[in-house]
Amino acid sequence: MTQHPRTLAEAAALEVEAARRNGLYGATWDTKARSQNNAAQEDRRKAKRHAACRLYLGALADGDLTIAGLARAIGRTPSAASQQSKIIEAEGLLRRYSLGDRSWAAITPAGRAWLAEHDSAGGEA
């Protein structure tokens, strides 16, 4: 015989109980599972950010490039290269400047140190 809840709280309690019985509670509502998922997502974002920084800073290690030249060097569109270079500039690893009608990018001393640290560590840090 099924129980019929009399209040909203009883209905919620019955729903949680049923979810636990069916093994769904940990996957959908458990805060520990959610925080582990968030940590995994953050690890993936960090790895992606580090890979982008290594790619951009590695291309700039030999000298300054225009944003269009940087885009060609790394195989991206100028728009994408410009957007990502702004993000890396905000971290202080590269400097963007205008010369004439072109935008240029240059690696900063902090960017060289970051690149040396992360290349020697095999990309991990």
TrEMBL record:
InterPro entries: WH-like_DNA-bd_sf, WH_DNA-bd_sf. Gene3D superfamilies: Winged helix-like DNA-binding domain superfamily/Winged helix DNA-binding domain. This is MarR family transcriptional regulator. It comes from Pararhodobacter marinus.
